[in-house]
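Protein details
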Amino acid sequence: MGIELTWEWLDGNPALDFANTVLRRGWTEHELVTSPDALNSWLDAAALPAPRPSTVTDDDVQAFLHLRDASLRLLRAAAGHGKRQAGDVRTLNEALLSCPEVVVLDEATGSPVARPVGSPAPFTLLLAKLAGEVRDVLAAQRTDLALCDAPGCGGLFFRRRTNQAWCGPPCGNRARVARHHSGGAH
């Protein structure tokens, strides 16, 4: 039985949307981006920090997964689940360095705007921007970053309350039902 790609977002944060392309059923993780079609589906639905590339290849899927896996481990470590690994930091930094930016003033508004140096390939630019989103979450050292504790989720989210254990009401309901069926405390 395949997993239907619904791409439900917690709050539209690109770093978390990127990391949450792994779904947990029970305690088993399932990869959601398994092909160019699946990646195209995610690109169509995601809150992207850069323009969407017009096409993606199998190589793009592998590059996406390589950066996503490192980002997922780094974000989970920041949420208190695991340890930060130097190899994951290197992967994130390599993506950032693949498309350096300069901050210039927008001619129309005079506001600062980041522009890539040179003419990077669209997918390279997107990966660099996603790496930047992950870097910004990690650099902010947010204490509200959490891993959803509900069976069948395991997604990263930002807590709205200090004691929030689940990313949203559906996960809270699943966790309470599972606890009830296992005879746990109410």
Q: What stands out?
A: Strands lie at 22-25, 28-31, 101-105, 112-116, 145-147, 156-158. The two ends are 32 Å apart (CA to CA). Residues 66 and 147 are 21 Å apart (CA to CA).
